[in-house]
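Budget justification aside, the reviewers requested a transparent look at the raw inputs and outputs of the sequence design task funded under Objective 1. We therefore reproduce one unedited record. The lines immediately below are the structure tokens for a 91-residue chain.
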């Protein structure tokens, strides 16, 4: 029974990490604007937007990895329960 708790704790920790990364990325993206700066008088705004995009791009690989980890851990949990069901049915 200890393995079940371990599986759920690891899965929950990875989900919490993924949610935290999504919230952090969302807080970075809230100031991002979808516009093109054609005039040089808006160079400071263009630099601010480039800095925001750079920070979001740094976080993005971690978000993708967290998605894959959650998916993999979900498969592991489901596989454990399927194996458990098959074991109990074969007895």
């Amino acid at each position: 029974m200890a393995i079940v708790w371990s599986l759920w704790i690891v899965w929950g920790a990875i989900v919490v990490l993924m949610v935290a990364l999504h919230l952090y990325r969302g807080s970075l993206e809230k100031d991002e604007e979808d516009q093109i700066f054609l005039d040089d008088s808006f160079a400071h705004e263009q630099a601010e937007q480039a800095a925001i995009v750079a920070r979001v791009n740094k976080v993005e690989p971690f978000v993708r990895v967290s998605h894959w980890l959650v998916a993999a851990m979900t498969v592991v949990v489901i596989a454990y329960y399927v194996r458990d069901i098959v074991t109990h049915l074969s007895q």
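The chain has two helices and no strands. Residues 2-22+44-90 form one domain. Computational costs for records of this kind are itemized in the attached budget.
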